[in-house]
């Protein structure tokens, strides 16, 4: 089987490593601007670039890649999703298209993850969490049980989310709070 990975950095290299363990015998890494035939995989972690390329390549198949060192229990993965080494995904989790669940991340039971979300290394989503599209969860962040985060939210490293987030933006701290850029502060 052939697979083209869009991107050439360290994230793309990790994707290629996992793909090689999943019966892809011809793996090509290429510049993200080259239009390639056949199955593709978004091999970069930058959100703006991922959104752009997901639109550009929306008609092409994109396999989910799961590290053999990850633990999954009866979950559903969207096309183009990467599950990294040591990630744990528990029962009845639904993950959208082109998501990244990175090294050592934990997603507990009955979570729903929107398209193009990034769960960084060591992040924890407790049970029944719902993430809108294009949500990024920073390294070591914790999202409390039963919470909902709207689309276009960035949760900073080590933050602890204790209530629903209904407004797009950047959230930092314990508990996580919306960070207002200096030009917007009064």
Uncertain segments are: none
> How many DSSP helices?
2
Cα distance spanning the termini: 57 Å
Mean pLDDT: 92
What characterizes the major β-sheet? 8 strands, mixed
Order of helices and strands: EHEEHEEEEEEEEEEEEEEEEEEE
The tally of structural domains comes to 2
What is the top-level CATH class of the largest domain?
A: Mainly Beta
Question: What characteristics describe this protein?
Answer:
186 residues; mainly beta; UDP N-Acetylglucosamine Acyltransferase, domain 1; 2 domains; eight-stranded mixed sheet; 2 helices
Structure overview:
The chain is mainly beta. It has two domains: 2-56; 65-173, Hexapeptide repeat proteins (UDP N-Acetylglucosamine Acyltransferase, domain 1, 3 Solenoid). The chain is 11% helix and 29% strand. It has helices at residues 10-20, 47-56, and strands at residues 2-6, 26-30, 40-42, 65-66, 71-72, 76-77, 82-83, 88-89, 94-95, 100-101, 106-107, 112-113, 118-119, 124-125, 130-131, 136-137, 142-143, 148-149, 153-155, 160-161, 169-172, 177-178. The strands form four sheets. An eight-stranded mixed β-sheet has the order 4-7-10-13-16-19-21-22, with helices on one face. A six-stranded parallel β-sheet has the order 5-8-11-14-17-20, with no helix packed on it. Strands 6-9-12-15-18 form a five-stranded parallel β-sheet, with no helix packed on it. It is globular and about 45 Å long. The termini are far apart. The mean pLDDT is 92.
């Amino acid at each position: 089987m052939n697979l083209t990975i869009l991107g050439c950095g360290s994230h793309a290299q990790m994707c290629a490593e996992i793909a090689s363990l999943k019966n892809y015998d011809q793996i090509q890494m290429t510049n993200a601007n080259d239009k390639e035939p056949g199955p593709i995989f978004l091999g970069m972690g930058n959100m703006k670039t991922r959104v752009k390329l997901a639109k550009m390549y929306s008609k092409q198949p994109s396999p989910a890649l799961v590290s053999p060192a990850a633990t999954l229990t009866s979950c559903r993965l969207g096309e183009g999703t990467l599950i990294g080494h040591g990630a744990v995904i528990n029962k009845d989790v639904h993950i959208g298209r082109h998501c990244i669940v990175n090294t050592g991340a934990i997603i507990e039971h009955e979570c729903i993850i929107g398209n193009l979300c990034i769960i960084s290394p060591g992040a924890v989503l407790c049970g029944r969490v719902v993430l809108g599209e294009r949500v990024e969860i920073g390294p070591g962040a914790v999202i409390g049980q039963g919470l909902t985060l709207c689309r276009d939210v960035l949760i900073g490293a080590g933050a602890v989310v204790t209530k629903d987030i209904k407004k797009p933006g950047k959230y930092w701290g314990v508990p996580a709070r919306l960070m207002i850029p200096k030009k917007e502060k009064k």
